Amino acid sequence: MNEAQKDPMFEIFISEAKEIVSSLERIFIELKEGNRNFDVAVAEALRFFHTLKGSSAMMGFDDISKVCHRVEDIFVCMRDEGKLPTSLDTFILDMLNLIDFLTIQINRIENSQQPQDAENIEEVLEKVEMSLAENDKMQAENEKRYHIRLLFEEGWEMENLRAFLIIQNLKQYVKVLEYLPSDIESNMASSEKIKKEGFFISIETLLKKEDVVKLFESFAWVRDIKVEEVSEKASLTKEISSWQNAIHSTNKLINVNIEKVDKLIDLIGEVVITFSMIVQHQEIKTDENSSFKNLTLQMSKLIRELQEVAMSMRMLPLSSTFQRLKRTIIEMSAKLQKHVDVHITGEETELDKVLIEHLTDPLIHIVRNAVDHGIEDKEERLKKGKGTTGNVYISAKNSGSEVVISIEDDGRGLNKEKILQRALERGLITSPDDIGEDEILELIFQPGFSTKEETTEYSGRGVGLDIVKNSVQKIGGRIFVESEKDRGTRFTIRIPLTLAIIDGMLIDVDGNVFVVPLSSIVETFKLEKQQIVLENETPFVYRRGICFSVIDLNKMFYGKDMLAKGRPFYLGILVTNGEKNGVLLVDNMISQQQIVIKTLPAILKQVRGISGCTLLGSGNIAFILDIGALLER
Amino acid sequence: MKKVLIVDDAAFVRYSLRQTLEKYGFEVVGEACDGKSCIKLFQQLHPDIVTLDITMPEMNGIEVLKKIMEIDKNAKVVMITALGQEEKVKEAVLNGAKGFIVKPYKEEHLVKVLASL
Amino acid sequence: MQEELLSSKVDEFEEAMKDMYLIFKVDDQFYGIEIKYVIEIIGLLPITYVPNQEEYVKGIINLRGKIIPVIDARMRLSKPQKEYNERTCVIVTSIDDFLAGIIVDHVSEVAVINKDQISSLPQTYEKINERFFRGVASLNERLILILDCETFVKPDRINL
């Protein structure tokens, strides 16, 4: 035994080295058997190699320390840069080889024998290093860079830390290059930025786009994931501004949850009703000139404005929908080789965003029908004496509390006989007498009505007008069709505005309450029985030398003759629809107030003269008169 | 059915968490009111998820979290916190918490987070 | 993943409700409608008559701010109308997002009736109302006519 061996340090070194080697062996065997996590194994092995390197260097055993140094470098590479060998099995074998080498070396040292030649093991290590580099290169070639924008749901709080959590998580799967806002860890205020603009991340990974998206799906508070593959050099900060510009360019928009807007609109409706109840309360004395009266007027104005703003939040102009219809027509007419001119009016008319979404497909279907079935080809048109170019008129306008959209063509019109025939064939009616003239056209809204001849590439099967009618009814609207042979067809869709508040006059007709829109009232006056003149059973009245027709609401809706009541006088309300005038015959005026318009359930038959209803403060239901329709007679 | 261990020093919080979780089909296998019993129950019951209050007397939430992660590095711990505890939340995230819920919490949020783990 | 959780709960719920029927009475006859259509049962509320409707459509009511139409079950079955009393109630149903109330004499119970308990209507039974019924079932010695809710509630002019 030589001096070195007698040295107690030597004993310690040998025993420690043996322990290290045996631990390393255990690590790699477990790794081979799949009982150890790779990253954990790497970290542990690294520690051991590092220790062995140090102690063997201190003892002067350079062969061992040099080898351990080289292995340590390899392992550091794997731990810090995530590099992996091309084949795990080969790697483990190589490592076990290495451990054998170390075992032999240590034994030889213990027995004062010559250390083994390291050349072989150096080759092995070089192989491992190469495989790491190769794998890395392969990966780099397949590695893709992605920019990601995440939008968080409202109300989760501490958004910056949630973003932080995402990054922590993400690091296990991909290489995170940068993220914005970058101060999520330290700055609570970055939450605001995330809420407004979203959380942006730039990563590099081998994963495919779908798999990248999946990485974020497990975070419950993420409501929108946008992933874009970008080039190697793309910088997140530069990308962000163009991403953000896309959002900001449309007039500084913010994202508001539609439920919040709905809630706001509901509340405003209730404010209107409650305010009316307050103003009409018996406990309040109202002198005409009192300051209280002024205050109530002011309040009414404010409520009105509130309502308009709330409604406008959900409203969008129909222009983009109409443009889309126009494009459909142009495409179709080109394909079908027909000439069609499109005339659009009222596209600035606004409608609730959600209603527009529900209407788009039905409108497209109607327009397709118009071009496909309605408009005739050039020859046929010439024969009929029409211009060779067909016309489709698309219009929208506000009428009372509704938006009225109409699509009209000057084509061949609907064939009533054919429709009747088809209905008989289908068993929808048993005899032509079952159905009135004006109801024939309504048959086209029955399911399964489209005839085989009518289904072409464009109209298709199964997307019948019944679906169109359903869609319209679903949003509380009504659809009508008018048609004349060789003159054309017109579809009219009436949609109630989600919330409309109008000033109305409550009137009493034999105990029933109706609302007359204030805007249609010209004047009210006492009407004596003698003033009412009957001509062919139709009542008229003269007022200031002009003859007005009298509308007996009681008779119209309830079949009771008002005049037969034998009262000495009634109340007459002169109303106008802008063009025509008439006098409503009522029992009494009740009050003037703001009312919230509600639609009648779609399941009911349309009642001419009634456009909707409202809930009074008492909980009773009052009908809103459609002055336009009443005067139309 | 996912097994959940509820840890909070306040009884009513444990109660309301249990109500919510059981309503949505989670199995509450145990409740702990402090760090020590939490660790014990965690080792005994092997729950799939632990909901852990961030502020508790004696052993605070972060310490408990660390201990749990030591026992099982794949443990799924969701921290229950409140506004103003951002530093603690950050520390929890750094120490392996898989999610956090801010009190007062929405049932929906709690369920969604636990369901996603 | 949470969608799976929630939608499977909805399916479970719907599964459980599948064979449950609300049994109500008009005159001496019992009728059943599937619970899945029933939103609630309320007492009679003031009805506002709506002109120009079918006879059995009695009008509309104000149900906590919502305006819904109500039909008289008796008249829908072409029986003569009777006066309403304090036992009269309204079954509020929801079909395709449309709400409608059915006025009935009396609601008796909720019962489970399996598919195999329902047999087809005998030929001679209430011919004029044939289209309303899916079949007939026997429950505790009573004959229950099983209604096709959609056909019963929706007016005939809609979707023939």
From TrEMBL, chain B:
Keywords, ordered alphabetically: Phosphoprotein
Residue stretches making up the Response regulatory domain: 3-117
GO biological process, one term: phosphorelay signal transduction system
SUPFAM superfamilies: CheY-like
Top-level taxon of origin: Bacteria
Family matches, as Pfam families: Response_reg
Modified residues (4-aspartylphosphate): D53
InterPro entries the record matches: CheY-like_superfamily, Sig_transdc_resp-reg_receiver, ST_Response_Regulator
Gene3D superfamilies with a match to the protein in the record: 3.40.50.2300
Name of the protein in question: Response regulator receiver protein
Organism (species): Caldicellulosiruptor obsidiansis (strain ATCC BAA-2073 / JCM 16842 / OB47)
Biological classification of the source: Bacteria, Bacillati, Bacillota, Bacillota incertae sedis, Caldicellulosiruptorales
TrEMBL record, chain C:
Protein species of origin: Caldicellulosiruptor obsidiansis (strain ATCC BAA-2073 / JCM 16842 / OB47)
GO cellular component, one term: cytosol
Domain CheW-like: start-end pairs: 18-158
Taxon lineage: Bacteria, Bacillati, Bacillota, Bacillota incertae sedis, Caldicellulosiruptorales
SMART domains: CheW
Protein name, as recorded: CheW protein
Coiled coil regions, renumbered to chain: none
Biological processes, Gene Ontology terms: chemotaxis; signal transduction
SUPFAM superfamilies (UniProt xref): CheW-like
Top-level taxon in the UniProt lineage: Bacteria
PANTHER family listed in its UniProt record: CHEMOTAXIS PROTEIN CHEW (PTHR22617:SF23), CHEMOTAXIS SENSOR HISTIDINE KINASE-RELATED (PTHR22617)
